[in-house]
Amino acid sequence: MNRFAQFPAQTYRDAVSPLKIVSAKVIVTCPGRNFVTLKIETSQGIYGVGDATLNGRELAVAAYLKEHVLPLLIGRDPHQIEDIWQYLYRGAYWRGGPVTMSAIAAVDMALWDIKGKAAGLPVYQLLGGRCRSAITVYGHANGNDIEGTLEAARQYKDLGYKAVRLQTGIPGLASTYGVSKDKFFYEPADAGLPTENRWSTEAYMRTVPELFEKARMALGDEIHLLHDVHHRLTPIEAARLARDLEPYRLFWLEDAVVAENQQNFRLIRQHSTTPLAVGEIFSTVWDAKQLIEEQLIDYIRATVVHAGGITHLRKIAAFADLHNVRTGCHGATDLSPISMAAALNFNISIPNFGIQEYMRHTSATDAVFPHDYRFEEGLLQVNESPGLGVDIDEALAAEHPYRPAYLPVNRLLDGSMFNW
Ligand code: GCO
Ligand code: MG
């Protein structure tokens, strides 16, 4: 007799775990900006939450989840995280992409949250436990001019930050990436239809080295300094900027070029020792395979919500670790506190953690998403509560209905469409 015959799949699952997914819902809320949240409920009253926010395309992920994913979850054992991940990834046939991977990520986060609550442990304990005492973060200092940026940076230093990203307004350009209206809460998705920025690479390239020269003089050598080019240079321009910035010892230069063509990074590497970071828009390990394998970057910025959840991000990190690449998860305010909680549980448990981006959420956002992580002296302390240590206040969320909001677009001075 076939000895497996006595274990038909369903019976086997029932024997191992009595826990079942009984319902799941998508919550869209806008406490100042839009967030998409998945909540999965189980037969034993335990529930889990996951972030599914994709800035400017929120409702596409919400519909993907509602129409195509939630019906597949009901009745499943929420403990089978890897199998459910594989089911959603392989089972769609159309693999990858930000909409699909954000939807899968939300399911994955919610399932890890459930597993942690069921075990009575914070998720990081299930991922192997602590590799460090807390998570070093970088904040965002920006100003309309260099002096304004340095003033903001001094404030971050006073708050205890050990690392700060510097972005400044560019003389001759009315607005640019990274410079906010409200200095503490940078929110680029600020209009019901995209606003238009103008861009001059020449003006930018003149300004940035001066910013960092003055920053080193004003802030000293101890603090880590970072900068985000936001995909705006060609490889040879990026190589020149990276070389010009070498004397100021950046922690990283981010998104110096577009990364669809991973070879772009070779040229920068050939000319400079400034460390390079990329990957906030990556959806899977395949987007970074060559970058990591050829050691063309130093930090991979893929994050929990846009790269398939904790389950896939761990694989990216493990692959990166083999090639001396460390992590630097995206952590802008368009990722909800659920993503931050998941990123912290991930960060604390991996050997090759580098740094975590931390843009503070507004108090309205924090009220909708109560959480147990906390900022102390430039570090984030991870939750000790079971699961991810984060929740959604559904009644409060309902008071903030969805509002269309888009990121700006960018044109060159002659009107040509460019990268934002
Ligand atoms: C960063 C990012 C963000 C993105 C934003 C897009 O480094 O934090 O570049 O500012 O532009 O997350 O939604
Ligand atoms: Mg960035």
What does this 3D model show about the protein?
With 420 residues, the protein is of the alpha/beta class. The protein has two domains: 11-121, Enolase-like, domain 1; 126-386, TIM Barrel, CATH 3.20.20.120. Helix content is 36%, strand content 17%. It has 14 helices and 16 strands. It has helices spanning 9-16, 58-73, 81-91, 98-119, 123-126, 146-158, 201-219, 235-244, 264-271, 289-293, 309-321, 337-349, 363-368, 394-398, and strands spanning 21-29, 35-42, 47-51, 135-143, 163-168, 196-199, 224-228, 252-254, 276-278, 299-300, 326-327, 356-357, 374-376, 379-381, 409-412, 417-418. The strands form three sheets. Strands 4, 5, 7, 8, 9, 10, 11, 12, 13 and 14 form a ten-stranded mixed sheet that branches. It has a three-stranded antiparallel sheet with strand order 1-2-3. Helix 6 packs across helix 7 (201-219). The longest helix has 22 residues, at 98-119. The protein starts with 8 loop residues before the first helix and ends with a strand. Bound molecules: D-gluconic acid (GCO) and magnesium ion. D-gluconic acid (GCO) binds next to loops.
**Cα-based radius of gyration, to the nearest Å:** 22 Å
CATH architecture of the largest domain: Alpha-Beta Barrel
C-alpha geometry: globular
One letter per element, helices H and strands E, the order comes to: HEEEHHHHEHEEHEHEHEHEHEHEHEEHEE
Reported for the largest beta sheet, the result is:
10 strands, mixed
Layout: helices, strands, pairs:
Layout: H1 9-16, E1 21-29, E2 35-42, E3 47-51, H2 58-73, H3 81-91, H4 98-119, H5 123-126, E4 135-143, H6 146-158, E5 163-168, E6 196-199, H7 201-219, E7 224-228, H8 235-244, E8 252-254, H9 264-271, E9 276-278, H10 289-293, E10 299-300, H11 309-321, E11 326-327, H12 337-349, E12 356-357, H13 363-368, E13 374-376, E14 379-381, H14 394-398, E15 409-412, E16 417-418
Parallel strand pairs: 4-5, 4-12, 5-7, 6-15, 7-8, 8-9, 9-10, 10-11
Antiparallel strand pairs: 1-2, 2-3, 4-14, 13-14, 15-16
Helix pairs in contact: 2-4, 3-4, 4-11, 6-7, 8-9
Bound molecules: D-gluconic acid and magnesium ion (MG).
